[in-house]
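Researcher: Here's a chain I'd like modeled. Treat it as a single chain, no partners, no ligands.
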Amino acid sequence: MKIKPIRAEELTGEDSPLQSLFWARAKSILGWKPYAFEINEEQRLLLLVRRIAPLFFFAYVPFGPSGPVDLSILSEGLKQAIDEPVFAIRYDLPFTDTAFETGGLLSLSYSIQPERTVRIDLQKPLVYRKRALRALKKCENRYTVRPYRGEPILFEQWYETYRQTALRDRFHPRSKEYFFHLLSIDEDKMVKPILLLAFGQNEVVGGVLLIEGKKETIYLAGSSTRPNVGYLLQDGAIRRTKERGGELYDLFGISNQSGYLASLDLFKTAFGGEIVKREPSLDYPTRALRYRLFTVLERHRYRFSRSLQQG
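Model: Modeled as a single isolated chain. Structure tokens:
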């Protein structure tokens, strides 16, 4: 297998916006070091490395690789191509029918990224369900939607709606600084962040943060403080993607049939689309003892986080 280091600027994000220069810069904000590679002169790959404790370095591939490869052979090559002595390489494989050779990797019972999602094929007519149509009708003449254009006061107002949504829906909010830096990334000409804002009587009442790639848009985060505004924002994001020639809109995550997320599932499936699944995260351990210590701590943290969400 031929693995050639390339510049992060050479990542196109064509197969996934999470395999792009934009996402490399976004994850750098959180302490990840990006590496970019060309694999067999056929596909490009973003790999992220982070030090999580002294002598503990962890590597992660978000929604890659795009094409069929032997992940064990790829992992050995990547291990030799990076500076840090990582104890494992983790893969969240893309939503695809591609068959990967996964011998030598460990399948986890949980994933960093969603294992199930709703994806809307925008090359077909939109077919919303009655739930979405009713909600949109209730929003008529009450709210407007437009993109955020860098106005500081509107960003502050949107973040407050996001904070309120986090309290209501019991999830841990990202920091204001993270979103501000995310929206400031403008190096990538193929993939960019977009914040759509909803207004009611000149007041921000919600917003959705999107990652727009050439073919695909991913819904990353959202907020709403009024009933049905979430439907209006998603409708705006879907139609925006379709109008600019995008082929796919990903609502990015529904539950793994967990009861406490049933309302989220109903919301995201209201816009039609197809429920798709992928394998859980896969790990390629390279240093056994460090990997075992890490997984014990990670499982404990994961269970604690889920207990907070469900409680």
